[in-house]
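WARN no homologs supplied; continuing
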Amino acid sequence: MKKILIINANYYKDITKNLENAAKKVLKNKNFQISLIKVPGVFETPIAIRKNIEKFDAFVILGCVIKGKTSHFDFICKSSFKAILDLSIKYNKPIGNGIITANNKSQAYERSGKIKSNKPNKGLEAAQAVISILSNGPKKI
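OK structure emitted
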């Protein structure tokens, strides 16, 4: 049974709880063994992955970064996303990125399923991406 670690960067708890619930639901339905770690923010997710890289087959990262009036948003998003991608490639492990990047809370609520919207839940999408990578091997043609 494949082991997946969900890392919830729960700075915006009201948003990431919905991401977490959606990710857990789809992973449980596919019979993965799931563990959960909560970290204070998106910037802490790469180190949480690195500390656990040998223990799990894949990771689902959940979080939210909302643009403010300073460039902090850009620095957090760029450095965190790059570190996550680098870890995935270096260790050959799927990492589903369910981090919402939004201009405001309303957009984040839509992307987390907190309010009714036609936007997909990013936690669900991240978990589905991991499932796809883990179950999709080369096929002879």
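The helical segments are 13-29, 45-52, 72-91, 105-112, 122-135.
OK
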